[in-house]
Amino acid sequence: MRGTTLVMLAVTLLLSGTVWASSETVIYNFNSLSGGADGYYPYAGLVADAKGNLYGTTYNGGSSSSFGVAFELTLSGGVWSETVLHTFAGGTTDGEYPDSSLTFDKSGNLYGMTYQGGTYGYGTVFELKKSGSAWTESVIHNFSGYPKDGTYPYGGTLVFDASGNLYGTTYYGGKDNAGIVFQMAQSKGKWTEKVIHSFAGGNSGAYPVGGLSVGKDGYFYGTTEYGGATYNAGTVYSLFETRGVWVGQLVYAFGGGSDGTYPLSGLAMDSAGNLYGTTYVGGTDNYGTVFELKAGKNNKFSHSVLYSFTGGNTDGTYPYYNDGVILDTKGNLYGATYEGDQYNAGTVYELKLTKGKYKESVLHVFTGGTDGCYPRAGLVLLKANIYGTTYGCGSHGGGVAFEVKP
């Protein structure tokens, strides 16, 4: 393991005579210029533990390879320090190119996925087990590929159910090579994977990206990039188990145009069971949308577009792969766009709920310089502040981890 300390860099933007009501602070610069031992290009977002430490992965870099790392960011004395928890070795014995966020179990161990690598080269599920201050990585599943298993887990985050089973998605694989949902169950310290759903296109959906959300009804909800019998513009689906059989249902098929096209993110859920997400394009100006699926009776949902991104010099565009939304306790939504606004390098935005309506405010405009560029992952709220990553730019060219204070 390797620890690296970086003094925080604060960036407050003054754009076109307007002072934004928030400030962005770069809490870590990933280095792609000098070997990249600390990792670079964080495709995935961050997850926080109970102490406020942040954890994530980078798609590239590492001391002995360029297959990526898992890392921890710790705050002490006003300074964030990075520790590399694992450097992925690749080949047949380890994963390559992690691009999903990490997930904690109840014991504080971390789980994630790599896009490639492992026994068959189709990606892995891995565990980072903590003992004292040390972390040990082990591959707990090697995806074996079409048609019996998934291939290339892309962007989605793993989730646990109440029984401790682990669930996730892969972009390809399964009976029709259009992606799968899988379950992993543990017995006597050994994990076993089972495909519980294969996507087949049409109203079944195709190519899941954003992972799964667990509803209070015990159902799992997710999105597919494509599918929907009429427009092939993507779907929201649900999965539930009855008498040992998993059943997939279409929740919503996007119609393209102003309705939204290609839901690439996972879903957020409020206490009433309503679902929130983003589409990559579509909406009034074809720059993407934020949508709500309002829960009704008999597991029926009604769709509405809460916001259509307008682009230009005043708004973001194209909420990308895991650029979904997160909720605060007041029902406000926060998210990021991959591009747009004055520098076309992305934004962090808020959708503030007032009297039942949402109003968008841009909290930060990325300049494409030292403050980072192209956020393509979800955000996390910690003590009322927002944390996330950008794929590129920063002082060392390898992307950044950032904090935004609304």
Keywords for this structure?
406 residues, mainly beta, Methylamine Dehydrogenase, Chain H, five-stranded antiparallel sheet, disordered N terminus
Overview of the structural elements:
The protein is mainly β. It has a single domain, classed as YVTN repeat-like/Quinoprotein amine dehydrogenase (Methylamine Dehydrogenase, Chain H, 7 Propeller). The protein is 0% helix and 50% strand. The protein contains no helices and 37 strands. It has a 5-stranded antiparallel β-sheet with strand order 1-9-8-7-6, with no helix packed on it. Strands 2-5-37-36-35 form a 5-stranded antiparallel β-sheet, with no helix packed on it. The radius of gyration is 20 Å and the shape is globular. The two termini are 34 Å apart.
Describe the structure concisely:
The chain has 406 residues and is mainly beta.
